[in-house]
Amino acid sequence: MKNIYDLSITEIETFIEEIGEASFRSKQIWEGLYQLQNSDWNNFSSLPKFIREKLEKEYSLTSLKKIESVFSNDLQTEKVLFQLEDSNYIESVLLRKDDRLTLCISSQSGCAVGCVFCATGDLGFKRNLTSGEMIEQVIFFINALKPGNEKLTNIVFMGMGEPFLNYENTIAAVERLNDASSLNIGARRITISTIGILERIKEFAEKELQINLSISLHAPNDLLRQQLVPLSRKYPIKELIDACRFYIAKTNRRITFEYVMIKGVNDSPKLATELVTLLRRLNCHINLIPLNRTLHFSGKPSDPSTLREFGRILIEKGIAASIRDSQGSEIQAGCGQLAGKRNGI
Ligand code: SAH
Ligand code: SF4
Q: pTM here?
């Protein structure tokens, strides 16, 4: 069945035109979807019954099936496993911190990049999500939070998959999250995390949006990065940093680099100094993330003292850095663990 959340307002207008109805009906459908987040066609009470029936015959409102939900020990992180209509799996993670409610969504089922420390990488690539499947993850949580009168504050594309290898659908989803007549989530509250697909960073920069961009770097040189992020063979670090420079020049925004800290692999003071040289004079911030253990990777998270020393070297040399706490690490927040289990991995 077709997913209504894959449609733009223009496509809904075409549908309404084709069934010979007045154009204001498309606005009513749009409001029911994005302002009221209706999960049943019967709740579109402003529409006559026969339009509702036509819609129901052709379009699904809820293509995602919730399979299971796991909470962290402190209950501040919830990870939900969904099954897609074709039986593939994806995960979304809700993180509560202070007054923030951040939803981490998936852009693909599985991932082709193959980062050695990532459970999604272990799964391999299954398929791209449609923009509607990305939007639906958000709608699901908006509805789940309604009884407690809570609202999502931030959306991050840091779940399963590489968003810039599914660029068009990701951008379509971002536009609908951001659009005032849709979900109206501020651009500065949306973050895309990418391994650094060069052409896409440039294309994204040209859009001059205010969306936050995170680059998953993990190493300051090609040799080490290629061991950790196999697909980075196609994207040399020097060209990646040039693309970042272009992005900053175009958008005037700071870039965040994510650096997963793995004991004895990428956490030495020498590598910290190399990172300083690489990122000198770049408007950026580095997030040091202690590795979450996964089933198929023998690496361990860096010791707290090593993490602090690494961060100290960066800060001392004028590079903004922070250590991200490992919220929800016991449920492998955002890293494909649940889907892995289902696929027998
Ligand atoms: N594919 C994109 C977005 C999804 S991954 C990307 O890689 O940027 C989101 C983040 O989770 C990335 O920064 C990734 O490095 C991190 N991550 C993946 N597996 C992890 C693990 N085992 N421990 C800590 N962070 C991990
Ligand atoms: Fe893909 Fe990101 Fe996982 Fe790497 S870290 S395998 S790019 S999802």
A: 0.96
